[in-house]
Amino acid sequence: MNDLRVPDQLHHQPVTFEGEFSKKLVTNTLFNFIGRFWSFLVTLLLTPYILSHLKVDEFGTWVLLSIFMNSFNLLDLGLGSSFVKHISQYYTHDDYDRINRVLWSGLIFYGVLGLAQIGIGLSVQKPLFRLFHISGASDAYFLVLLSCAVSNISIMLLSVFKGVQRMDKSNSLEIKISFVQALGTILFLRAGWGVFGLAVNALIGACCALLLSAFTLPRVIPNLSFRWHFDGPLLREMFAYGIKLQISQVGGLICFRIDKLIVSRFLGIASVSFYEVSSRLTSFMRALPLISISALIPATAELGARQDRQKLLRTYVLASKYVAMLTIAITAFLILEARSVLMLWLGPGFESSVILVQILAIGYGANVLGGVASQTGAGVGHPEFDMRSTVLLAILNPVLSIILVMRFGAAGAAAGTTLAFVVATTYLLTSFQRNYIEESLRSVLQEVYLRPIAAGVFATLAVLAFRHVVPQIGSWQTVRWLAPVKMAAEFGVFAPAYILLLVAFRQVTTIDRQNFVRLMSFGTTFVRHSFR
C-alpha cells in the first residue's frame, strides 16, 4: 500500500481550478448541471399536473410501476455500470477498436437481456401485484417491461458520450428526450388515459432516446462502427468490474425505493403518494450537490489511466470540501422550510408530508457527503468501497424501516432510511480514508465536515431566533402566494449567517475565494462560448 500514501507536501499545495483537466471537469459539470436542472424542473412542474389528473391510488400505482422498471434494468449483471469507465479509459489512448468491441458486445447482450426481462417480468406479475396491492394495471405493466428492454440499449449509447467526456452532447440529447416525454405526459393525461397513458409515454420516450442516440453517436465520433466486433473476454472483464458497481446499484435501488414498497405493503398504496411527494422533494435537494460531482468518474478514470495520483487526490479534497458546504446548507434550509416549500409546490393537502421531508432530508444529505469518495473510488477502479457501504445500507434500510413503520407509520419508514444512510456513509468514508487515502476519518471530519455542520446549526438557530422576533411570519406559510416571501426573508437571514460563519471558522480560505473568482470568470466564458 505504500504507493497509495499521500505525500505530506500534498496537504500544503493549493487546490485550484487551474489547468486543462480542471477546465474540462468544470465544463462537464456545468453541462451536467444544465441537463439535471432541466430534468428536475420538468419533474417539479409536472408533478402537480399528474396529481391533478390521477387519483391518489393511481399515482401510487405509477410510482410502484416506475420502481419495477428500475428494478428490471438491474438484470444486466453490472455491464451498464462499466461502460463509462472502460470507454473513458480506451478513449484516453485513442483505442477505437476496443470501443467498437465494447459497443457491439453490449448491443448483443442487451438484445438478449431485453427478451429475458419481458419473460421474467410477466412471470412474476401476479405475485408482485398481490404483494403490493396493485390492481387494474396489467396493460401498463407490459408496456413498462417493453420500455425497460429498449431503454437499456439507449442508456448504453448515451454512456459513450459520457465516457469520452462530451457531457454537452449527452445532456443535449437527454433534454430533447425529456421534452418529448413531458409533452406526452400532458397529452395522454389530458386525453384521460391515466396510468396506461404514462406507460405508453415511457415507451415512446425510450424509443426516441434510442433513435436520437444512434443517429448522433457516429456524427460525434466518426471512428465508431457497429460492425461485428463481439469480444467475449472483454465482456467478461467488464462484468468483473461492473458486478461490484452493480451491487452498489442494487443497494441504491433498495435504499431509495424499498421504503415506498414497505409503505405500500403495510399502510396501503394510497400512502405511497404522500411518501413519494416527500421523496421527490428531498431527491431534488440531493441532486444539486451530486451534479457538482457527476463528472468525477470519467475524470478520475482519466487521471487513473495517466497515473497522476497527486492531481487525483487534490481533486478529491477540493470536491469533498465544496460538496460538504453546499449539501449542509441545502439540507438545513430545506428542514427549516419544508412546510413552505410543499405549500408553494403543491398547495394545501400535503401537510402530512412535512415531517417526512424533514426526516429524509437528513438521510439524503448524509448520503451525498459520501458521494465524492464513491465516485472517486469507482473512477480509479476501486468500486469496492461503495459496494461494501451499499451492502450495509441495503441490509439496514429494510430492517429498520419495517421495524419502525409498524410503530410510527410512514415517518418510521423515513426514519429507518435516514438511520441507514448515516451509518452507511460513515462506514464508506472510514473505509475510503483508511484504505485509499491512508488517513483516519477524524482528519477528514476536521478538515471537511465539522465546520460546515457547525455553521449550518448556528445559521438554523439564527432563523429560529428571527421567527421568534417576527412571529407573524409563521402564518405566511399557510398561504400559497406568501410562502415564497417567507422563504426569501428567512433565506436573507440564513445565507449571510452561514457564509460568515464559514469564513469565521476558516473553512473558506483565500485560495477558495480565488477559486470562486476563477470559476465565475470561467462560467462567463462558458456562457458566451458554450459549444465546443
- Shape call: globular
Approximately how much helix is present in the residues?
A: over 70%
Taken as a percent bin, the fraction of beta residues is: under 5%
Q: Average pLDDT across residues?
A: 82
What's the main sheet like?
none
Total strands: 0
Class inferred from helices and paired strands: mainly alpha
SSE topology string: HHHHHHHHHHHHHHHHHHH
What Rg is obtained from the alpha carbons, in whole angstroms?
23 Å
Q: Extract low-pLDDT stretches.
A: 1-19
N/C terminus separation? 40 Å
Number of helices: 19
Number of domains: 2
Give structural attributes.
globular, mainly alpha, 532 residues, 19 helices
Strands, helices and their partners?
Blueprint: H1 20-53, H2 56-72, H3 79-92, H4 96-123, H5 125-131, H6 138-163, H7 167-190, H8 194-220, H9 232-267, H10 269-291, H11 296-306, H12 309-346, H13 354-369, H14 371-379, H15 384-408, H16 410-437, H17 441-469, H18 483-504, H19 510-528
Account of the protein in words:
This protein has 532 residues and is mainly α. It has 19 helices and no strands. Mean pLDDT is 82; it is low at 1-19. Helix 3 packs across helix 11, helix 6 (138-163) runs parallel beside helix 8 (194-220) and helix 13 packs parallel to helix 16. It folds into two domains: 54-230, no CATH class; 258-532, no CATH class.
Brief overview, please?
81% of the residues lie in helices and 0% in strands. By secondary structure, the protein is mostly helical. The protein has two domains: 54-230, no CATH class; 258-532, no CATH class.
